[in-house]
Amino acid sequence: MTETWRSDGTKREVASVVHAFFEAGKDKELASLARFHSPANLFTKFDDVPPYTREGSDEAFVFEQASFANVSDHSYKLDDLRIDLVEGVAVATFYHDYSCMFVNDHSFEGRTVASRSRVTMLFARFDGSWKIVHEHFSSVPDWQEIPRQGNKEGETL
Question: What is the C-alpha separation between 104 and 93, in angstroms, rounded?
């Protein structure tokens, strides 16, 4: 059995990767997004925005760059973050609340977008670093009417 201090340290390490991934997007560090993913042949993603198909690494990277490039005033919150460790794999589950201004560069128009998604991220170690092997986002319908529950933002237990 894993020693508690080691397990807690690993959970904090994975949580910091989760937060760093979303910060990179928010800060429009678009070229750095790919460094969070596992090797291309091992990465998959289901998203809650079109095209709603299973994406491989190349597709996900293009869609992530496009999504973050067309937004401004982006803010987000990761709520009820939980990290579970299972045989060398880390499973992160949480709620992702975000709001932003989606900007259409061609018409110079924008609209405010806000949503809440349930997120699962699977991590494995590659060359000593935790990398995302799979992401799954699913929208929460009527999210503003659902009371929040669980632990505090950023808590990993």
Answer: 32
Asked if residue 17 is part of any domain, the answer here is: yes
Contact assessment for residue 132 and residue 123, using Cβ atoms and an 8 Å cutoff: yes
Domain residues for 112? Answer: 4-141
pTM to 2 decimals?
A: 0.83
Residue 151 lies in a domain: no
Q: How far apart are CA 91 and CA 46, in angstroms?
A: 15
Per-residue burial over 144-157, b if 16 or more Cβ lie within 10 Å, else e, is eeeeeeeeeebebe
Are 151 and 157 a contacting pair, CB within 8 Å?
yes
Is the bond preceding 147 in cis, omega lying within 30 degrees of 0? no
Number of H helices, E strands in the chain: 2, 5
| Contact in structure between 120 and 136 (CB atoms under 8 Å) | yes
- Element (DSSP H or E) covering residue 125: strand 109-126
* Alpha-carbon span 65 to 61, nearest angstrom: 6
21-72 pLDDT per residue, tens: 999 988 988 888 889 999 989 999 999 988 899 999 899 988 888 877 788 8
